[in-house]
Amino acid sequence: MTDLMQKVTPEFKKCLRSFAGCDGGNLKDIWVFGLEWGDPIDKDRGELDLTPVESATEWTWDEENCGYIEPYNEKLIWFISYFYGFDLDKESIKELALNHKIISAEKDSIGFKGNLFPIRFRNRHSTEWTDELKTKTGLDSFSEYRQVVIYERGEFFRKLIEENKPKFILCTGLGETASFIQALTDQVKYKIDIKDGIKICYADYKGCKVFVVPFFGYYYHCINKKEKMASLVNRIKALL
Fold this sequence. Notes:
Elements: H1 2-7, H2 10-16, E1 24-25, E2 31-34, H3 71-84, H4 93-99, E3 112-115, H5 131-137, H6 142-164, E4 169-172, H7 177-185, E5 191-195, E6 198-205, E7 208-213, H8 226-239
Parallel strand pairs: 2-3, 2-4, 4-7
Antiparallel strand pairs: 1-3, 5-6, 6-7
Helix pairs in contact: 3-8, 6-7
């Protein structure tokens, strides 16, 4: 890994050790992690921005930056609402987000939303490693990028876990289970719990449980219905 890290540009190393690609929120509450911000299907990526983000509240949700309208984030609100007992039938998604300060910059807010990978990709079928990516990161492939994220960015997030002691971390996307577990716990082994058709992988880091669960999406294998989300929340509570 030392040889690989020597290839990384100084610009990208700063990006890795920052909140780049994260919505942010309260680091002392529940963390919810995705893979990365997605690229809009109908727009070009534009110039690659590797600017480091030093604040944990840079892209939190409010009236102006209404991240709660995104489909993934709507399901994240389902999860937090079921976990804390908010009434999904009496409040809209917007009301839940704003009234309960979900992924908010305020000190007593609920939830921190992060992404393990800082660079936008549309999905795992669209990870072409362009000349611009090679030049700006210093890396030759997506595989090298994944290794560097696990090593360098993982260390950044683990330090934050030790400092802030979040309640637990929920990672979405079973296809990257090994990446999530290794980056956030610095180990490769994890336990598996399967019940009601939902697979949960989990490990522990410094007293903080790290869970990897199905993606919050539309497809049948995702957490795509409120009933599934309620079941997932009950399973997580039982494993804590």
